[in-house]
Design goal:
Keywords: Cell outer membrane, Coiled coil, Membrane, Signal. Belongs to the SusD family. This is RagB/SusD family nutrient uptake outer membrane protein. Helix content is about 40%, strand content about 5%. It has 19 helices and ten strands. A hairpin with a 2-residue loop joins strand 6 and strand 7. The protein starts with 6 loop residues before the first helix and ends in a 10-residue tail after the last helix.
């Protein structure tokens, strides 16, 4: 049964009614209406005021999803007889030939900094409210959300403007070095930890808790060497242990349950999720990207999906048949909802994970005239298609942080040199994830000799497909320049571990320096 929206969630999404989708141009009346007598006093009133911060988060599964995923080795979005050409933007992502004017690069920048601006504007209102414990917690929650937005922008673009107040003046912000942005994010999270809720309830679902902050800090420290030049592996263990030892979270028995259309606050594993709803909180369109047109009949959908995003063969081959996580892939003969073989335009729908054959004269078009090229590639349905979708929108909430990630971060930190935990503890942490995938195959479980960094790198691929970690993982492991399906290795282009500062942003602000190499 589809979950029912709670009062808290309706407050979170109420911001859209006033702020609009961009969350940058607010109705001045919304803010000028607050006086000493009308400032929010109850938790519900504070949440209503902060709604735009959370509605902004839904761009995570659109702009940021494309930026983090489309250039990685987990997916390819080939041109299929003209379908998905889209001005060549997906080709550029696959070949790592994006420019400062690339649509995905620009759209993600706009989304991220609009969200940061929304946080700063809401904070400027909250700070004027009378002192209370609810005010203190709400301010810390918005600062934690701002830290998360800044983390994504810093991870993607490196050297970025760092703005922490809402200023309607004309002074434009200059570029701040990536290492300084990293230090700011860490400090802001650590300074606000004490005020964040420790509860895992319907009321805190979709909002940052203390465990959200610990998880984000673990992730920041895991990549500290990339971001600042200085590793801090023990801090990864410290913050991972805080989540693990909290007793608030447990691995889901069935890996895929936490991604289903009826997922929500009752799932034991997610630490932070973004609530979506097919009518009231739209933006989860992933099923359209991955499914073949004919899958409408398989999942009883009201529209034809778009048939685009599919697995690269080498990535698909990482999944063994005995691995429960392979169930997230559609491949081979496809069937309709009654079990009959699926047919499209007279062609039997058999998805071939390997049949990426370029048409003559093209370096990215695999053809579509006979619909054959449209059958290439395994399709990921980790977020199981929602038969109650409305138009292009599904109701699956999107998981951002979950316990499996924390466990594997701890294990990796130990292998990289952390002394705050032992190798046996690292093996135990990694095996909690591994044993869920191979419950009846003990020979597949890790030992002190088989748990290597290469094994962790592979395990993260198996566990976190389409969870927006792959690009960051590839960079941390030095694999971003590896050859992919059509892309040759580009070892001399390590500067592409950062995306360029968008041309449009620099045209509007001449204080922004371009990243080296672009």
């Amino acid at each position: 049964m589809k979950k029912r929206f709670s009062k808290i969630h309706l407050f979170l999404f109420a911001g859209l009614l006033v702020a609009g989708q961009s969350c940058t141009k607010f109705d001045d009346k919304m803010y000028s209406a607050y006086t000493e007598d009308t400032f929010p006093k109850t938790p519900e009133q504070f949440i209503a005021l902060t709604g735009p911060v959370y509605t902004s988060a839904r761009g995570y599964f659109d702009n940021y999803f494309s930026l983090q995923t489309a250039g990685s080795d987990e997916v390819i979005i080939p041109t299929r007889g003209g379908d998905w050409f889209d001005g060549g933007k997906w080709r550029d992502m696959h070949y790592h030939t994006w420019s400062a004017s690339h649509e995905v690069v620009q759209n993600n920048w706009d989304w991220g900094f609009n969200a940061i601006g929304t946080c700063n504007r809401v904070l400027s209102i909250l700070e004027q409210a009378p002192e209370s414990t609810t005010k203190a917690q709400t301010i810390s929650e918005i600062k934690a959300m701002r830290a998360w937005y800044y983390f994504m922008m810093m991870d993607a673009y490196g050297n970025i403007p760092l703005v922490t107040s809402f200023d309607t003046g004309t002074e434009l912000p200059a570029t701040t070095a990536r290492a300084e942005v990293y230090k700011f994010i860490v400090k802001d999270l650590e300074d606000n930890l004490a005020n964040l809720s420790e509860e895992k309830t319907e009321a805190t679902y979709g909002r940052p808790t203390k465990w959200f902050a610990h998880t984000l800090l673990a992730k920041l420290y895991l990549n500290a060497q990339v971001y600042s030049g200085t590793a801090n592996w023990n801090k990864v263990v410290e913050h991972s242990n805080a989540v693990i030892n909290s007793g608030k979270y447990a691995l889901e028995n069935d890996f895929l349950t936490q991604f289903k259309p009826d997922n929500g606050a009752s799932n034991p594993e997610p630490i932070f999720s973004i609530p979506y709803d097919a009518s009231r909180a739209t933006g989860n369109t992933l099923f359209n990207r991955v499914l073949h047109y004919a899958h409408r009949q398989t999942f009883e959908l009201s529209i034809n999906p778009w048939n685009g995003w599919s697995a690269q063969p080498a990535y698909f081959d990482l999944f063994e048949n005995a691995d429960n996580r392979k169930k997230q892939w559609l491949y081979g003969q496809q069937y309709n909802s009654t079990g009959q073989p699926l047919n499209y335009n007279g062609l039997n729908v058999i998805l071939d994970p390997y049949n990426y054959k370029l048409i003559p004269g093209s370096d990215f078009d695999i053809g579509g005239a006979d619909d054959g090229g449209r059958l290439a590639g395994a399709r990921c349905i980790k977020y199981y298609p929602d038969k109650n979708q409305i138009s292009n929108n599904a109701g699956n909430d999107v998981v951002v942080f979950r316990l499996a990630d924390v466990l594997l971060m701890k294990a990796e930190a130990v292998l990289r040199g952390a002394t705050a935990a032992s190798v046996s503890q690292a093996v135990d942490a990694a095996n909690q994830v591994r044993k869920r995938a191979f419950p009846v195959n003990p020979e597949k479980h890790f030992t002190a000799s088989t748990l290597t960094l290469d094994a962790i790198y592979k395990e993260r691929a198996l566990e976190f497909t389409f969870e927006l970690t792959r690009r960051t993982d590839m960079i941390r492991f030095g694999r971003w320049e590896d050859a992919q399906l059509f892309k040759p290795a580009n070892a001399g282009e390590t500067y592409k571990r950062l995306f360029p500062i968008p041309a449009r942003a620099r045209a509007n602000n001449n204080k922004l320096d371009q990243n080296p190499g672009y």
